[in-house]
Amino acid sequence: xxxxxxxxxxxxxxxxxxxxxxxxxxxxxxxxxxxxxxxxxxxxxxxxxxxxxxxxxxxxxxxxxxxxxxxxxxxxxxxxxxxxxxxxxxxxxxxxxxxxxxxxxxxxxxxxxxxxxxxxxxxxxxxxxxxxxxxxxxxxxxxxxxxxxxxxxxxxxxxxxxxxxxxxxxxxxxxxxxxxxxxxxxxxxxxxxxxxxxxxxxxxxxxxxxxxxxxxxxxxxxxxxxxxxxxxxxxxxxxxxxxxxxxxxxxxxxxxxxxxxxxxxxxxxxxxxxxxxxxxxxxxxxxxxxxxxxxxxxxxxxxxxxxxxxxxxxxxxxxxxxxxxxxxxxxxxxxxxxxxxxxxxxxxxxxxxxxxxxxxxxxxx
Length: 365
Description:
five-stranded mixed beta sheet, alpha/beta
């Protein structure tokens, strides 16, 4: 008899729990339906909350629907999924406060952030929005803009690395991510143009790797080298942490004060430092005071997703989207910069790189 009563009690408790779950889901669905950010928030409130204008948000949703597999579910629209992810990217707050803000459970917040991140890093999206100039005419257009602004010819971009904090990885791979700054990170290499647009991202290396190692093992280096081999003489600007190469111009170490080349080089190269600062300050999940609490691969995808959003905002011509965003245009990774040291005998690439740099210096004088 007691066994039957206990079984009946368990069945009743399970039914009540299911009813509570259904009630909560229905209540949250109604709450989401009753709160429509595109209608209930002013333009300024929407931008402050999601870092995009309403116009850009609608465009983003159309692009994700057209180019990826991201779709609405039975209870949640695709727009609410995107808003949930944008709120996370923009604030750096984790799933529980985001769920409270959008009437979505913590578990489902995590699911939607993952879905939107995968959509933003879909190959169709990346090929369209993070794209190094792939024709001579496109590269010439970038180099002409750099020359008009900074007086250095043949520049097709500026390159640098920046550390993005991540939670401590698994023990067997932890050493790959422990940086010289004494925290775990991804050292992300980016190339940008004169308009702070990100042209290339390499986010697969841990913080223990130096900028020069990442560049020497990157597709970007191989692509630029192939351009030179085919007679197209263009280059990137990089700091002293990189090796001097025919396709990568670096500063002259121990140069005399007021060196014209170094001054022009420094003024032009500041765009990559500002690009990192704008990216991290707009999308606060990447901010230097935040830590991404995910495995390195997912952290890498989040950085890529935010880079796509960064470029979309620039493409719409509203880069300074919120006056109160407190943009500190300084890349903290420039502190205690480790200069590149050429090991062994000088290579042909180093010799040719120095010859081209000397020719550039004479031209600028």
